């Protein structure tokens, strides 16, 4: 069995380089690249450059430029990705506040920026300033009362609907690939699949613009996942400027892996976490050289974002925290409980979201994407506005939930009853009884939690850019903050219990509810994505909470264990399978005891395998075979009687070779003999000029016997650069059949009692 897309030996590649055809080595849309051929082509290219560099100074300079081109591409990716992320952050801040009011002194200022510039802002009312006016103040000169509330409510909904409608319209008309998170498709592309246009310039432009619109609309989605897609579009664009990457799909994917790291770096301000995310979650092939370049791209992107300073706090992290209390061993129990909650939430979300997305694909609902977005936006805005914890942007909500309650905090979550005789420093406030504001905030958070859980299920997967990181973190942060407040009050009122006696004395600052929010956020994000190492690193880079790695690790591992107990797939793998992409996860294990002969085609009762013979078919015969079939390639045998295998020819290269021969070679007609041997066959006198196609023949296709375990075949297809598109089955060099990547995926679906036809692409 041979995977017909990935098996070209380096010998025939030298023939390609001697006289290359136009477009040779390229791939059709929705096909898988040949990793081994791309590696061989790059090796030959590098060998030529090295040999030529000794001929002259100019050739030596060109070799240096080629060697440094990878670092130049990384620099450009980091600069553009960081700039776009900064612009998106600034635009989102302004447009989110635009739903509630406008700055009179400069309309392009957000609420916070507007009041920064005011000389009339007081500390107690730092969110209020004369320059910032709500819509009711501007239109009817009223800031309080029922009429002002209704007008602000109405305009909030109208702005949200306007932003969402504009976003879905732009995606639908100009760039259909700009919808969704992008990470499932990025994973598939990095595994070697071709999706033309998915990383194109129009997709980059439209996704950047619409990402601002949908996040500003208040929908339950984030910009972090789509920023990975945006960064990969940047990587694809700069790759096309250098022939080293534009003409080699394998090398291009090394650049895209580094671009994904840069995307997470600017999404969370976490350059190291970005590199680990690319390694753990999205990359299929990640050599050491790519690790270094990913680190450099993430560094440049983070530095660029820091230079723009979109958060105005002179920090790279999004949710900077500074807790003054260490965590205690007894707190591991609630941390682990939060991990269990995260795993259960991840399982619930994946199952419900996939069921809803499948319903969208298989019913009339999928025919009305604009209407679906408008309805979900209207429901979100109507329910979100009355609750202050759902009205504000999700990033601001998470930031408030992570914060510790200092003496200067004015949030409801910090409305504790203070001891008037307290003389402690402001950064060492002891645990206090909760005031009415805290109890009110708990009810509002509980309602916001239920709303966020439900609405996110229906929002993720719509035909707009939609990330899942921030909504998942918000769910965990709300649950964690409520658990943290509960543990805090329990410790305050029952400090004599044995579990609190040794570490929580009266008047001590024992429990930090913000830490519980941070741990809960990590648990829920891990339950949905199944990330572990990269998740913990992202979280401590995101918050600056380096001291709290152990609680984060405990919650992340627990959430993964719990979620894996109900299913091994994370949300991205589930969407890959839902869309039918031919993706074989290197982390999956093939546990069934089947053989290659159980999977190969043709099966008993099916038409015989379409093959080419080495020297007995005419150009017309080959063109007819290509026209009547849709296979990606054809085995080449000595004759149809012996069926002794000599190689494999890919469909696209056959078409290009014949087209090139008709244009350049005199005497090639429809009844010219096509031969794949070194010497032409003996032909009768006056026969038309034969056509030699040996240079496109893969002389060493991957082959297995009919009794090879499918576990071995699965490993061949899935293990990084050795992954194949096809695999030929033979016994004593006699061809029996062929196995493609699609056949393996269908077989795995059958073994799992799933629909094998869900694998849509070749």
Automatic annotation (TrEMBL):
Membrane disposition: Multi-pass membrane protein
Q: Does the keyword Ubl conjugation apply?
A: no
Please give the GO cellular component terms listed in this UniProt entry. early endosome; endosome membrane; Golgi apparatus; plasma membrane; synaptic vesicle
GO MF, one term, reads: voltage-gated chloride channel activity
Entry's transmembrane regions: 68-92, 153-175, 195-215, 227-243, 255-279, 332-356, 368-385, 441-461, 468-487, 515-540
Q: Name one Pfam family in it.
A: CBS
SMART domains per UniProt: CBS (SM00116)
Give the CBS domain ranges.
600-664
Q: Does the keyword Nucleotide-binding apply?
A: yes
Query: Where's it found, cell-wise?
Result: Endosome membrane; Membrane
The principal localisation class reads membrane
Gene3D superfamilies (alphabetical) = 3.10.580.20, 3.90.1280.20, Clc chloride channel
Keyword annotations of the record:
Antiport, ATP-binding, CBS domain, Chloride, Endosome, Ion transport, Membrane, Nucleotide-binding, Repeat, Transmembrane, Transmembrane helix, Transport
* Top-level division of the source organism's lineage: Eukaryota
Family label: Belongs to the chloride channel (TC 2.A.49) family.
Q: What is this protein called?
A: Chloride channel protein
Write down the species.
Oxylabes madagascariensis (white-throated Oxylabes)
**Lineage per the UniProt record:** Eukaryota, Metazoa, Chordata, Craniata, Vertebrata
